[in-house]
Amino acid sequence: MGNEWPLDEATLSVLLDRPGASKHWVVKSPTNELLGLCATYTIPAGETLIGSLAILLVQPSHRNLGIGLSLHDVAVRNLSSVPGISSMHLGSIFPRFFPGVPVELPTKDQNWFAHRGTALFVIA
User: Fold this and answer.
1) Considering the entire predicted model, what is its pTM?
2) Residue-range definition of the domain harbouring residue 51
3) What is the average pLDDT value for the chain, to the nearest integer?
């Protein structure tokens, strides 16, 4: 995941795999290159659940092609259909490595999320 989030494949796999509480989507190229990743979780909150769009990443070389928008829309649609969801958040309580949109992202990338109607939590 680059120098900013130095996670090896095995560690990322363990964090992503939460049976019954996680659902993820990927977009791959015809040559099987990972172009985009979206990870979602449901988190118990008393009698209800919180939907969490924890990760939305698109390869820089493939941005502005609709990959991120498609992943975002599928994730929100899926989370909205889960029984017991009381709210949805951008970022995650678990895993905590993405508590919101990173502040070091360019403003245009932060605004992309704001224009999707997603609650924007930027952690300084």
Assistant:
1) 0.77
2) 9-123
3) 80
